[in-house]
């Protein structure tokens, strides 16, 4: 019996693997992503009950992902970061994170914080809402900025700066005879296809 579904996002593959393994062993259903663009796509598809986000990442940051989760999916989130400067802490509070964990942390310290966040979100969920009220069909979701998302994907996939990624996207669009938004949409669609769970 799963304790709940959690999205874990960190661009450090070792940290991501450690967190995913530890939370899975603790009984959670874990979805992981190593960049913010994939994180949003996976969140839209799998609807996690909680997200654990690294803050500093190439492309979309943990703050960007958190803002999207809060505004469009109403998914609670917590941050895991090595940064404790005033600006970072202020932004964490502004976004309304349920917790802010400072690296380095052992998984044995993270699991209780995640369990507490799940308990908190369950306790604060509106009791009057029917389960279907909380769920939005994908067709009802706000449209993604496909161009920005595609640029982020190219930045991540090919280790490019944002300007270089945009230039590559424009080149792909020209080569394929598509408009920039159309080419971006094709890339996003391809990523969403790859993110689908395999059919058993």
TrEMBL record:
<keyword id="KW-0597">Phosphoprotein</keyword>
<dbReference type="InterPro" id="IPR001789">
    <property type="entry name" value="Sig_transdc_resp-reg_receiver"/>
</dbReference>
<feature type="domain" description="Response regulatory">
    <location>
        <begin position="5"/>
        <end position="118"/>
    </location>
</feature>
<dbReference type="InterPro" id="IPR011006">
    <property type="entry name" value="CheY-like_superfamily"/>
</dbReference>
<dbReference type="InterPro" id="IPR050595">
    <property type="entry name" value="Bact_response_regulator"/>
</dbReference>
<protein>
    <submittedName>
        <fullName>Response regulator</fullName>
    </submittedName>
</protein>
<feature type="modified residue" description="4-aspartylphosphate">
    <location>
        <position position="54"/>
    </location>
</feature>
<dbReference type="Pfam" id="PF00072">
    <property type="entry name" value="Response_reg"/>
</dbReference>
